[in-house]
Amino acid sequence: MQALVYHGPGQKAWDDVPEPTLQAPTDAIVRIDTTTICGTDLHILKGDVPAVIPGTILGHEAVGTISEIGSAVTGFEVGDRILISCITSCGRCPSCKQGRYGLCTGGGGWILGHLIDGVQAEYARIPFVDTSAYKIPEGLTDEQVLFLADIFPTAYEVGILNGQVKPGDVVAIVGAGPIGLAAVLTAKLYTPATIVVLDVADERLELAKKFGADVTINNGIEDAVARIMELTEGRGADVAIEAVGVPATFELCSEIVSSGGTVANVGVHGSPVTLHLEKLWIKGVTITTGLVDTFTTPTLLKLIAQGRLDGTPFTTHRFKLSESVEAYDVFGAAAETNALKVVLEGEKTPLNAPKREALALA
Amino acid sequence: MQALVYHGPGQKAWDDVPEPTLQAPTDAIVRIDTTTICGTDLHILKGDVPAVIPGTILGHEAVGTISEIGSAVTGFEVGDRILISCITSCGRCPSCKQGRYGLCTGGGGWILGHLIDGVQAEYARIPFVDTSAYKIPEGLTDEQVLFLADIFPTAYEVGILNGQVKPGDVVAIVGAGPIGLAAVLTAKLYTPATIVVLDVADERLELAKKFGADVTINNGIEDAVARIMELTEGRGADVAIEAVGVPATFELCSEIVSSGGTVANVGVHGSPVTLHLEKLWIKGVTITTGLVDTFTTPTLLKLIAQGRLDGTPFTTHRFKLSESVEAYDVFGAAAETNALKVVLEGEKTPLNAPKREALALA
Amino acid sequence: MQALVYHGPGQKAWDDVPEPTLQAPTDAIVRIDTTTICGTDLHILKGDVPAVIPGTILGHEAVGTISEIGSAVTGFEVGDRILISCITSCGRCPSCKQGRYGLCTGGGGWILGHLIDGVQAEYARIPFVDTSAYKIPEGLTDEQVLFLADIFPTAYEVGILNGQVKPGDVVAIVGAGPIGLAAVLTAKLYTPATIVVLDVADERLELAKKFGADVTINNGIEDAVARIMELTEGRGADVAIEAVGVPATFELCSEIVSSGGTVANVGVHGSPVTLHLEKLWIKGVTITTGLVDTFTTPTLLKLIAQGRLDGTPFTTHRFKLSESVEAYDVFGAAAETNALKVVLEGEKTPLNAPKREALALA
Amino acid sequence: MQALVYHGPGQKAWDDVPEPTLQAPTDAIVRIDTTTICGTDLHILKGDVPAVIPGTILGHEAVGTISEIGSAVTGFEVGDRILISCITSCGRCPSCKQGRYGLCTGGGGWILGHLIDGVQAEYARIPFVDTSAYKIPEGLTDEQVLFLADIFPTAYEVGILNGQVKPGDVVAIVGAGPIGLAAVLTAKLYTPATIVVLDVADERLELAKKFGADVTINNGIEDAVARIMELTEGRGADVAIEAVGVPATFELCSEIVSSGGTVANVGVHGSPVTLHLEKLWIKGVTITTGLVDTFTTPTLLKLIAQGRLDGTPFTTHRFKLSESVEAYDVFGAAAETNALKVVLEGEKTPLNAPKREALALA
What we know:
CATH class of the largest domain in chain A: Alpha Beta
Distance between the termini of chain A: 21 Å
CATH superfamily of the largest domain in chain A: Medium-chain alcohol dehydrogenases, catalytic domain
Strand content of chain A: 15-25%
Mean pLDDT of chain A: 95
Radius of gyration of chain A: 21 Å
Oligomer: homotetramer
Shape of chain A: globular
Structural class of chain A: alpha/beta
Number of domains of chain A: 2
Helix content of chain A: 25-40%
Order of helices and strands of chain A: EEEHEEHEHEHHEHEHEHEHEEHEHEHHEH
CATH topology of the largest domain in chain A: Quinone Oxidoreductase, Chain A, domain 1
């Protein structure tokens, strides 16, 4: 089969590779029908994530169809159409039993396209499929559910729920990339009074308005702290969500949050930040961090099925799966292409014949 | 009457001053029966709290007896014995209505011995007495309840409750001064599996053991991070409570906390700290700050009345109220005197005749 | 002045009565600008609420303008336009300090039009005004905020919040009167997947659809349990809200709730009900009861000001305040008149001159 | 091997039966080292639980040693000493993923000694062992952990946690059998101000005092409601825990609970009860029900290992496993024998040789 393979910093290719095979009784093999590229994939390609060794297939977001299942799999059958999540859960370790799948110590966590081969491929091996994948309800398209693989639960759990957004709140979201925009959409599930989005690119702020922001602030030009204080009669935002990942935006969040409010960090940070405890110690502020656990995926799936949440506006570009290299170029040049999410579509060729027997014989 | 008056950095005196008078219908005048000195009072004397203007009477922790009440006071009568709390609550502003009295915007918050005259005096004016003071149940001594004025609710609310201590947790408390030791006593209300106390003074660590610490670590000598990791099989503490107020101890807390755990900052900080978000962003950590609200004072009072909580071991020295200057010297030299809490006892002379009529005539 | 006075079971009149006067330093006198009639007022008129003694002015929901204030009032001034809530809070008792104003033991709770004169009058005395009334933001009409006096916070606190409605839930609301419909509107603040409304009157179910119900069931005709189970693949509703107040509807709620779900009782009951613990003991069900506390009124007011919540569709009829008797007739015959909420509008004559001085001299 | 087999109402025998074998890759076979008898086993023997078919081996509480494991088991090895819980969790269904193992829809829940053969036997098959059993820390005896199989988590989760016991509460526990006494021990983890135990047998009340009750009331003789109101200055208990399972005790709980309090039902009920909603609708009361989920077992195990919780006083009688019939007689006549928990000890003969290979070959 063919797949998008990482060959070290700056190098990737659409290569011929061996088909994946079942390695544990809890595995499934899945034909990839639709996948997408994440900002994290770009970081890997830059060499920022040394845990990814050359030769690894990239990708951790997909919709696919099961072609083989291990002997211990009970929740799925060959032919089932599933959502593959960025987080794998063993379902057995203390973290998983508390719903903290992102902290799985039993062989899961973020492994796809990271510690094992990922899903930007014709087929992929999905470990612990019973506790890590989700059957897709009839009638939903691949693209309707695809963004549940990462950005929706990430924004919702690490931003909205950690931030404890409540009806009537003023919510400030710093960063209007895919995660920030997913935070706008999922914040609305709790009906805040006002959603403010801050970014340095006016195009992104325009987009934020379309996604539902009530107020936008270009914090490259405007005095963002002054604007927020003016909007809130000097109180600050009840919740400030960091969706960028650099010190300046985190520190901005800590300045615009109200006494008693919450700063929910979603961004991936590479450097330490300065925390102004000399001001914050008395303010009754809560700061949260975290990787997504995806424990809300079933809830978000229900909301999509009922038409209460819609991720399809994220898609700005579509390619064939075999055009992955070109797709990366478009996504990597988002500042010029205005790419938000780039969708890769597989061939959906008929499934290989079920192979459970083959395994049993082997 | 006489009182301990702040006369600018480094200067204090036991002075003759005018008796306080009712200034609002919600005020009470209280004869001070027992009071104590706080570490914050030492900061004021060093000039660290410029909001305190020379001429201010110090002190924000006391037990007293009401000698006069304003016309709108309904919950107390002359002669009632009350606990005076470090936090004043107007009971009307949005913060007070949410139980966040420390953030009171209606004229309360920490004002005694700070923005208005305090309680290290023969008499004191207590604003908003109905919503700020607590009647003392029969049979309890002044010293049994005195530490409810500040250190008990501070340690409990800002440390234990913000930290979300639960049965079975490993709780690490950094700093074994009065607040850290009050955190040990109130952590035990939730039956953690293990309480670890860290400090750089062995005398304090000895004391921590007497107060109930299971493990003590001298972090001036030992590798505290290694010790905590060893104790917890590499996981770290479920809750780390910062009870010192300097960057090094906050940063230590952020290193010893487990994935999914909480750092509860109680210390008063004068400088920014470095937050290692490049490590913490993925760890699902919560960091909290805050001033005490004293919303738990009624609960803690019940526990003291039932013998479930006992603050009397905090008292290491006792003086007459008129010996306040000497008492400050002993408390200020804690490293030599081993002072923990220094208690000042008033004369308890008969109350002046009730004066509500006098006010009405004025 | 004139007011709607209760004269014993079945008897009411628009009478000449003395103007109210300040009786405590925490009182205000308020000119009633707009008021409305509650189902509870009809119960009083039937003699179902014996605590209401003949001679009492009825009414506990109003918007008005302050004409006099007591000497201890600090949050309002003469001329302020306020929302008068069905619940009065002393702000000082243990219940009020926990936000449970409905359980106030300091002279508040539901007293207006019940234990003291109410607001269906030209002027009313409002006790504890600082902790019981809310300033109305500029630009909002009386009718936009009027329903915050009772039905909105009742439905939201006792139904939606007690029921712990979450995004993605199936919420079943039994009863489509004003409270049930307010539950539909406020449930939507948490974006449930599906709102099902049950009632025995098709007109009310039509209305429920207009207010936002996704599914309606006439439980006088249809097998409601079967319909709910079909809708939820046999699981039942996550939250069932009782908004009628008779045994049959409570028992229906206990049959349609899912394992792990919540029955939130909002209805006022006059008889015991049968609880099928022989089925429910194993189901992990929570049942809640309660009178409104109105602690969410500031939040709901913010949502109305931002256009996120709109109560104006409740008004079906409007009368002059002096036509109160006729208005009661229309509201009492709701089955024929289709009345939902009947609004009474005062004359808004110029305020009497401020009288604080008068009081001081008295 | 031999086991205690149910032969229909009133009939049981210590029989020769076939050894259990692995039936799924997630199974383990366990040598039973120590087991105990539950009140539920007596109900089964009376024929009250028709789902138990004649021929079933009884028992759902045990400590054992693994003798064989299925091919998908990753968390345990042959020879591991484990706690077997009354609740089996598939780890994959929506209920299990929310920690509600008692509501497992994937083949678990309460199945041992109920829907499949139980643990009062020399060997038992334990399904889903990875997600249902717990490794026992070195140094703990069988009896120290045995009561974690059922009564400790049941009392803690369904009584203390559902009841939301907090420091300072008055907790009333109705029923002083093993569950009620386990509620006393686990309530203390949250340091209530006062634990009151009610029962009709003075011997049980004596025992309750030994377990830590502060006050006991014989509600067969005394006016229990009056006593509780006197103790609480007319407020009632913050939490009332029903640990009997008959209408009278549930109704007693609903009378002694305070406004704003919680009734946590733990008892297994066979009949409906009367709920006095005509009094309760206004009281802000929460009523909870539920089967144990055992999600707290790891926490309770930690507390036992640290000496914070001790279940060994539950054991009143000890028998050999082969004397099960006699043990049932003693336990069934608790009123005369004063039996609390009756422990059955296996022979601990050497394990059969590991059989994973045998399976693979089969």
